Amino acid sequence: MTLGGRLALALTSLVVAMIAVVGLLASYSGTVDVKALLAAGAVGGLVALGLARWIERSLSRLLAAEAARQEAAREALAASEQNAQAIIRTALDAFFQTDLAGVILEWGPQAESLTGWTRAEAIGANVVDLLVPPSQREAHLQRRKKRLSEESGALGVRFEAPMMHRDGREFLVEVSATAHRRGDGYVLNNFVRDISQKRLAEEQLIQAQKMEAVGQLTGGIAHEFNNMLTVITGTIDILADGVKGNPNLAAITKLISDAADRGARLTSSLLAFSRKQPLQPSEIDVNNLIEEVVQLLSLTFGRHVGIVTKLADDAWPALVDRAQLNSALVDLAINARDAMEGTGTLTLATSNVAFGVREAMAVGVEGAGDYVVIEVSDTGPGIPPSIRDKIFDPFFSTKEVGKGTGLGLSMVFGFVKQSGGSIEIGDADGQGATFRIYLPKASASTRPLADGEARPVIGGRETILCVEDDCEVRQFITIQLESLGYKTIVAADAAEALAIAGRGTPFDLLFTDIVMPGGMNGRQLAERMMAERPALRILFTSGYAYAAMHAQGRAGQGIPMLTKPYRKEELARMLRRCLDPAVDHTGDPIPLPYSVQPELERFLRKNQQ
Asked: How confident is the model at residue 552 (pLDDT cuts 50, 70, 90)?
């Protein structure tokens, strides 16, 4: 019987009992109307029965509504749990749940991928034993104890910490932990994200920004220094010609000339570090180049330094400046010899590697693709972690004062980065050092760049418009050009040069510096003038040659450049290289008849040596 039926029966019994009581009272008083009593009882029974049925229906509706509400609540709870599980399964972050003691209660799929531990292995284990590196466990327990001593209900923290994979390697993670009440206690929901790649990218960005800032500074210094060296190297040649008959003065000029050459090499290293040097990349065989370097090193290292090569037979050709790579390998080898203090083994190895986007970003190369790897290893003491971030900085050196400029590794770094590759250090302190160079693979369409033929060092009678913002360099160039027989017109900037050309002043060649103040550089000046004079000959010069590499339009394609500092012979040769080839009215070269004379002259010179 239902609850409503039982209630109706109870009410009916109550009415009948009431009627019985009324009858007893009536009999007691001596006035008994049996018919009235029966009628009252029947009416009371009907009323009680109807009331009971109404109550039964009302209670049934209430109970049905309550059952429906409870069923909806159960369905909502199940849907909520399903949604939570779906979120956990599809979330990018790994999820796991623990009690306050650190025992794992739940373990999401991403947690399996992140840590290597399966759900069956993780459930019931302690998170400290499973995920915290041994060196960090004591500190972790102390931090957790401190957090749990605070209000557990408000516990919600975000922190970074090292985590241990199942295979033993450590990686950096970000953890977001929140406490939720469950029964009389709390559980901790933890979302974990691997941020090791993010942190590596941030460190690389900071390092790149630092190197870029230092590179801009060194490049600017090299530019100004090259202007001064241009005057020094040029005038010393004039003085040397004037003191040929005086041995003492000739020796002094030779010392000055040698010092200027060393200064030029110094600025070249600075420009290499700042990635502002002009490169001539071509397809080269890295194995062949290494063998040449080894032959050179064998003659200078002595018997106590062994040189071992491990060259891959299938090593790809690299697209790189051959001379700069040669210099870089020699610098690395000399550093290795010094680190080994003249006794040990130097190993040079080659291999191939193909990088995806993630690997390319981690290594620091220009982009994903195929790269040739060159490793230079030694058996020295290795590189201490405290200086690993500084070894590519210019002027940083671990050698004694006077035994190194500190530019060798910075030059290698700049050259490799400018070539589209990267260099990294792979070593353990005390186990030797390994420098690993990544260079882009040469494509099948790559062709070596041929140098122009050297011409006799002679002057001319043409008129040259010289544009140079540095007053001393401008005076020097004027003297040099006039000594070679040229007529010279000088301008301090692009605006003055345009004004000279605008007046219709005739000249045969524009000799302009690339980096100039005033809002218009030499490249833009050349573009303006070539628009009006297509057949105009142009020669660029700069102590900051990187600007020419990004020349756009016709004014930046195929135009020779004379890098500062330069000597009189180089200036004369470059001028004739620009002025001698015949051009038509549009500035395009006119093909000349083929002649065997140049080949004959080279053959005679070779056999006379």
From this structure: very low
